[in-house]
Every structure is written in structure tokens, then in C-alpha cells.
Amino acid sequence: MSNVVAEAVKTLSSSVNVSTGLAHPNDMNKARELFKILHEKGEVLLKSDVESVALSHGWDVSSADELGSLAQQIGEGKNPRVSGGPYWAADIYEKIVARA
User: How far apart are the C-alpha atoms of 48 and 19, rounded to whole Å?
Assistant: First the structure.
């Protein structure tokens, strides 16, 4: 797994309520938007990698599984609708890369 993907999941984990997973629409949209950015930048998004990092940052098993599945779907080219937003600064990818 790339350090960038791991840092992105860490960043997402600090901006959503991990105790409720992706239950809140804004949290789901943040995840969708972030994974779309990563995919557009050529990052490989694998369910097992994202799930593992999410678990290490306090996500419960079910929510980490959902997050990993979402990431993999986007990594495979699915383009889910993001309502509202933008949820991330225009330079979020560059910030994540710098921290990775």
C-alpha cells in the first residue's frame, strides 16, 4: 500500500466521526470525494489496505469494511455522486503527499 493512501485514510479519520462510520451523509461525501481525488491522481485503492488503516485509526470492523469497499469501487472506476462540497481544499492531495 502506498504511504499516500495510508495518510489519506488517516486524514479522513480525523475529519469524520469514526464511531458512526459513514452513516452521516457529509462523512460519506468526504470519503467519496477523497477517494475520487486519490484515484484521479493514480493511487491504487484496495479494500484490504484501506480497511487495515481504518481499523488502526479507530473505525469499527463493519465501518472499516464499508470504507474499504467504497475505496475499491472508486479505485475500479466507479464514479459515485458527491452531494454538496467541496469537502476538501483544492490542494489536499499535495498536503497528504507532503505528510506521507
Answer: 20
Q: What is the DSSP letter of 97?
A: H
CATH number, domain of 90, equals 1.20.1290.30
Alpha helices in 1-100 (DSSP H): 3-13, 25-40, 47-56, 61-75, 92-99
Q: How many residues does the chain have?
A: 100
In the predicted model, what is the mean pLDDT of residues 17-30?
A: 96
pLDDT at position 1: 81
| Angle, helix 47-56 to helix 3-13, in steps of 10 degrees | 50
CA 64 – CA 90 distance, rounded (Å):
26
Distance CA 86, CA 96 (A): 17
Number of domains in the chain: 1
- Model confidence over 36-86: pLDDT tens digits? 999 999 999 999 999 999 999 999 999 999 999 999 999 999 999 999 989
